[in-house]
Amino acid sequence: MQTEQKQIDVQRIMAEGKLREIVNDDFKAADKDQKPREKKYDEYYALYRCYKERTVQLWRNNVFVPIVFEIIETEVPRIMTSFFAKNKLFTVQPREAGDIENARAVEQLLDYQLTYPINSFYEIMLWLKQALLYGSSPLKYGWKTIEEDRVVWRNQTIPWIGMQLPMTKSKQIERFKVYDDPTIETLDIKSVRVDPMVVRPGDIQRARFVIHSYTSLKSEIDPGTHVNLDRVVEQDIKPEMDRRRTVVGTTLPSSGYANKQGVKIKERWGKVPAGLLKQFNQDPTIQINAMDDELVEAVVTLANEDVIIRAELNPILNGTKPFIMLIDQPVHGDFWGIGEIEPIAGINTTINDIVNQRIDNVTLAMNMMYLADAEAGIKVKNFVSRPGGIIKCENASPEHLRILETKDVTASSFKEVDFLKAVAQGATGVTDYLKGMNSPSMSDTATGISILTESAQARVNAKIMLMQKTALAELAENIIKLDQQFIDKEKVIRVIGLQGLEWRDINPEEILGAYDFVPTGSLNAANKQLRTQQLTTLLGIVGKMPFLDPRWLQVLFNGILEESDIVGAQSIKELQQMANLIPNQMGQLAQVGMDAPQPNANPAQATPGSGNPTNAPVGGMEDMLRLQTATQQVQQ
Questions:
Q1: pLDDT tens per residue, range 537-564
Q2: Is 514 helix (H, G, I), strand (E, B) or coil?
Q3: N or C terminus: fewer CB in 10 A for the chain?
Q4: What sign results for the dihedral spanned by CA atoms 162, 165, 168, 172?
Q5: Which residues pair with 503 in a beta bridge?
Q6: Rounded distance, CA 187 to CA 512, Å?
């Protein structure tokens, strides 16, 4: 028995050594590939933070022109506004006819989770901003369950007979599950190492491995999913945030490290031989249905570069790596994208130099230098420009004291700065029109301004469409896949309809199936109100036309619903379908807010063009009124 146990221990030690070697070797290979980029990332971060090292001569100016900051903070709100232009991020379309009914439940569940438990707006903003800064931005998703104690009042029970006393309650502390939903987190780009063999932009699922490195307190490591924690010791660490603060001068390189203790974690997601997992775990309850030499998707976690604390099959369905890479500007043949700063980093630095030289030139011109005879008896400390100042000397003749004139060259530098700013705008597409700044050449008409704005928006629109159809759609799909995998009982969610807050039970069977996730964001969110008004006006005009196909009215009405931010717009569309109006009744949709149909009106007295249809049944008037009320909310 002891011999058999020793054999098992030896196998486990050997398996741990091989797993440790796999993690460290892959990390070194990826780190060697990414280190040159990370040096540039520090430069880009310093430009975004408007940081410039102090010069040796203290009199010299150290002004920083925030070109990079201005561009990033112009694009982030505009793109985020487009992403969240509607009340929900996605509409869900089934891939099979049998999933049409379930698509509605999936859409409501996804909307609820992105709005409340996940707080997607904040995380997506961080995700987007990092992509604009560096060109690529990793996001990690997973399933999180949090339990906490809560105080409740329960009816007291007589212990010896098990009878409850309804009039007497006692305060008790019970354990509740307060969070049981997907979670997303934007990762620092320096904390992720990706297989250097991947060349398709952002396609992280093609990577042989992805390693997430971070630091953690030992107490924060879950003992339920990790082993060997008795061999893990906290040590001095240098958090990446301290390194980043050093780059912008807010933390000294030697400060703050000694008091920070933690565990260095390298979490590798990728394929490993199945035999190593079997030998490391040595647990008959863990079933790995694969040959020992077969590669399987797994997660292997290394602590302090020495102790394997987790080695198991990838817990996510189909072995999907739980990472999504958001790319700003993809480049064919390179996994990493190009950000907004890379093309203009040198331009911003040059503008800083020109502006500071210009100010230094003015300083020298106003505080002139002098050429003085050493025998004139003039004290150097007196050569300071001041109102009414007098410099005493033994001989004040021009031969003993002369002014060294500094020519004013600031006029030409203005043109150079304007030229460089124009180059930066051309490189990024962030023009004065996108920034909301006025220009002497800008048209004074609303139509002219709208045309110029849309022209400037074209490049940003292409960026928005790319992000929506790749990273955002992938995020929605993987969140629902997590729901399908981990939700095993009815889940109560909040939905917003015409009556305000409503509660809906989501059954696990309702969310099964395959779906397409279509982003609802608007490419021109700033002009949304104008388009809504135009559609409403057009609806009123064409509705008066005789012999008009009512399907055109349906299209216009749906367009208003799509552009509006009215709460429960989807419910209005459902109400419209429930009304089951005949074509003649649909024709009266254009009369909304004009000649309202009356429920007690006599159809025989109605005239063409009035609010009452000449041949509409009286029994349908109630539905028409409900529909009219809903549509008026849209117009408001």
A1: 776 777 677 766 777 677 767 766 666 6
A2: coil
A3: N
A4: positive
A5: 494
A6: 30
